[in-house]
Amino acid sequence: xxxxxxxxxxxxxxxxxxxxxxxxxxxxxxxxxxxxxxxxxxxxxxxxxxxxxxxxxxxxxxxxxxxxxxxxxxxxxxxxxxxxxxxxxxxxxxxxxxxxxxxxxxxxxxxxxxxxxxxxxxxxxxxxxxxxxxxxxxxxxxxxxxxxxxxxxxxxxxxxxxxxxxxxxxxxxxxxxxxxxxxxxxxxxxxxxxxxxxxxxxxxxxxxxxxxxxxxxxxxxxxxxxxxxxxxxxxxxxxxxxxxxxxxxxxxxxxxxxxxxxxxxxxxxxxxxxxxxxxxxxxxxxxxxxxxxxxxxxxxxxxxxxxxxxxxxxxxxxxxxxxxxxxxxxxxxxxxxxxxxxxxxxxxxxxxxxxxxxxxxxxxxxxxxxxxxxxxxxxxxxxxxxxxxxxxxxxxxxxxxxxxxxxxxxxxxxxxxxxxxxxxxxxxxxxxxxxxxxxxxxxxxxxxxxxxxxxx
Length: 456
Hints:
The protein is α/β, with parallel strands linked by helices. It has three domains: 4-129, Rossmann fold; 140-310, 3-Layer(aba) Sandwich (Rossmann fold), CATH 3.40.50.300; 341-411, Helicase, Ruva Protein, domain 3. It is built from 19 helices and 14 strands. The strands form four sheets. Strands 2-1-3-4-5 form a five-stranded parallel beta sheet, with helices on both faces. The chain has a five-stranded parallel beta sheet with strand order 7-8-11-6-12. Helix 3 runs parallel beside helix 4 and helix 18 (432-439) packs across helix 19.
């Protein structure tokens, strides 16, 4: 079947004549009378070329050209101008039109011109597809690891990346949820749009609605101007809602409405604003359990979780510790200008025996500290932090009543987490807000953990 061309012209006889000429050349021709009709066709058909009049019943063809080049840049445009009105054609070409012809004077040139424009559109698509394949292949390169758990996770992520499906990423604190979300974005067809990561737990609850959905001038005290929210900023891109379990019930309702209607309402405004955003959600809590216990909306949970990816903890991918440690060592050594080449066997032994309650983020911080303290070209056990050594089963042979057995394997991860929370609370002098920040979890999540472990 021939490549598809759209003609937007309100004069019936000319529209039908052009359609017949181009149809005889083997093109599949679609016709529209208004810009609105034309946009509807562009959204539903794979059009290579648009031939549009300048003067149309509802819009100007020049503005239509601008819309096409902003929203579907792979489509070429030929503008038809009135006799003697060359300036419209020149203006359209400055906006990215392929060429222009004068109505009634360029009919014989049109088949050749259309063929060239379609060929250019075809080549642009091939180039875009090649770029897309190369970028999607490299988008996951930042995720370091060769363990079975990581390979399975990446394989799943690559399959869903090319779709617009909402993704829910589950994983403990520090496992790299934002890194995976960004890789999903870069491997998608939205990769040239914005990637907006939002930590819901970091936004005060009374500001969450305004930050996410924006507000209208005068909506509340201090709203001196209209403001776009993160959803509008992320239009035609991807938004990451991290720790969305920390959202208030009212905000959960508004998010559900946004998912269903694909539009948002700014605070203080009743006019819906259409948005084109892919949502990736992430949490370190058991969102399913929260939904079951009515602490999170069930209908929102099911809207957010058509495709779930679970990130393995560092304990589940210990084979990757040497690779990750080497990467962090090289990055930090270069950053502070030290020539550090290796890690001692004892140092690596301790890294691989540690339970890593803080996962990759904890490993990154431990390596950074070691690089700062190192006096020669090798990282040794002496550069490890005191609390890290205390928590290590190699140094602290914890009885097999709850956390770690003699071989260094975890016999009860819940006990390890409980001990870690108690340790951080103690360092924070019992201040739960400070402890939650150190643990990198929301305050509500900390309270839930304390209740779960009978520590409240």
